[in-house]
Amino acid sequence: MFGTRLPRYRTRSGMFDDMVAAQIRRLNGAWPQLIRPVQFAVEDVPPSEPAPWEPEPSFSSQCFPASHGIPARIVLYRMPIQSKAQDRVDLQLIIRDEVVLRLAELYGRRPEEIDPDWNM
């Protein structure tokens, strides 16, 4: 009944991915040297049993420093983040805060240095 380009066609997971990509693009404009070397991923839920080398698991997101030729990675967990959000704007803010928090953790910076609006 409606085309694939119409907003109704977008799934919740597709909209979530778009919001994550928008935050990455926004931060890349200000901090390309921090964003380019990092891989970003979205998974539905965190692993039930983390690998032995993984730190204490987070339910919203995790970051993994670069090692042994593998680039640094930030993984956001869609379902836990969506369960925290009250509406679309709230979801965008939570995604922004998670991405900024994990970037700060990877680079040993305060989140406010990367995004002054963090956690507001």
UniProtKB/TrEMBL annotation:
<dbReference type="InterPro" id="IPR038555">
    <property type="entry name" value="Zincin_1_sf"/>
</dbReference>
<dbReference type="InterPro" id="IPR010428">
    <property type="entry name" value="Zincin_1"/>
</dbReference>
<dbReference type="Pfam" id="PF06262">
    <property type="entry name" value="Zincin_1"/>
</dbReference>
<protein>
    <recommendedName>
        <fullName>Peptidase</fullName>
    </recommendedName>
</protein>
